[in-house]
Amino acid sequence: MLYQRSSRLFAEASLVIPGGVNSPVRAFKGVGGTPIFVKEAKGPYLFDEDGNRYIDYINSWGPMILGHAYDPVVNAVIEKAKKGTSFGTPTALETEIAALAVSMVPNIDKIRFVNSGTEACMSAVRLARGFTNREKIIKFAGCYHGHSDSFLIQAGSGAATFGVPNSPGVTQGTAKDTLLATYNDLQNVKDLFEANKGEIAAIIIEPVAGNMGCIPPAKGFLQALRELCDANGTLLIFDEVMTGFRLAKGGAQQLFGIKADIVAFGKVIGGGLPVGAFAARNEIMDYLAPVGPVYQAGTLSGNPLAMAAGFEMLKALNSDNAIFTRLEEKTAYLESGIRKILEANNIAHTINRTGSMISVHFDANPVTNLKTAANGDNESFKKFFHGLLSEGVYIAPSAYETWFITDALSYEDLDFTLNAIEKVAVTL
Ligand SMILES: *Cc1c(COP(=O)(O)O)cnc(C)c1O
């Protein structure tokens, strides 16, 4: 494949944008080379500036669960735009999407919309601190909750790819209130509670981790966290920015039957526009301004274009339960196909999957936390990535990322992908 235009565009971008990208995970730093510049996308396909087509397994890092340029979303945004793009006053549409989200997700009475997953998690933690009148939080190494200061400690995703455990610029004062635990290690969490009695406002967790590759929670782990929180007056925050409206209508709470106190959303909820949200039961949400004392705001929060896109997306997901079954089946098909190919080629691997989140780790040992995720053979991953790219299959340019399956994928697309993997596997 030719990447001439992309390479030139990247060189131009690098002169005026740090690293040529507006989010580090888009750079190809973890795999070498320069990123492809996308010109347009439709359904499961990306088309780059050089005219190459790719089957897309990133899907904007999750939002495009029904494929790119999904007609109902596109049309709703066009129609809304004609009527004004931002007012800074309430609109009826905000209530409609809020009511729909509240009806789809268990254990929430009210929801507040923001502009990104980062804002959602940041605000969820502030709310938890205000509500409990405590300062410390527990986060898990390798979980990513956006780039707010208190989360940039062993943050997974881009931070793991680039080997930045803790970002400069985060003050020690902030860092000391974030207690770090190992994913799937209950004793570790218990020890933190023991050492910080009465001080922990919240545990924040990705109920299925997706930012160190895909790592499902060990059986009983989430339930045990729920019980620890109850016993200690601590709130359980599910960061469902990835899992929300993806693993089920009601996200991971529904899939695992675990009740979170506060839930953060992003990605799918915006249908591809910049939207995040956080939600909880009345007692907690009424702690927010203007009703309660915890301040949180946003000039463009609840923006009409963003709400129109999100509303169409949620309506589509709410109207057809079969979407989640289809996503699961397509991803399981991909999983068993990849496993067969890697086994036939004697390539050490572990494939983790929950629903339509899947990742391939080039290591034979179980991948259950950040440490074991880091054991993967990165040289194999780089070859795998570039091999697939040149075959027209676009996966995330980092071994620490999950693949997001879209319902727009046909079984022909999946077979095309497996065929490409077969070709690449013999070169590993
Ligand atoms: C992507 C992501 C975020 C951050 O969302 P942004 O919209 O990028 O700010 C937070 N949490 C999780 C689990 C994510 O995957």
The CATH superfamily of the largest domain is known as Type I PLP-dependent aspartate aminotransferase-like (Major domain)
- Going across the biggest sheet, name each strand in turn: 4-10-9-8-7-5-6
Instruction: Provide the CATH architecture of the largest domain.
Output: 3-Layer(aba) Sandwich
Structural class: alpha/beta
Query: Biggest sheet, open or closed, and with what strands and sense?
Result: 7 strands, mixed
Q: Which H/E pattern describes the elements?
A: HEEEHHEHEHHEHEHEHEEHHHEEHHEEH
Q: What is the count of distinct domains? A: 2
Q: Fraction of residues in helices?
A: 25-40%
Count of DSSP-assigned helices:
15
Tally of DSSP β-strands: 14
How much β-strand is present in the residues? 5-15%
Say which molecules are bound, naming each kind only once: pyridoxal-5'-phosphate
CATH class of the largest domain: Alpha Beta
Give the CA-based shape.
Answer: globular
CATH fold topology of the largest domain: Aspartate Aminotransferase, domain 2
Low-confidence runs: none
- The radius of gyration is 21 Å
Quote the average pLDDT: 95
Taking the alpha carbons of the first and last residues, their distance comes to 20 Å
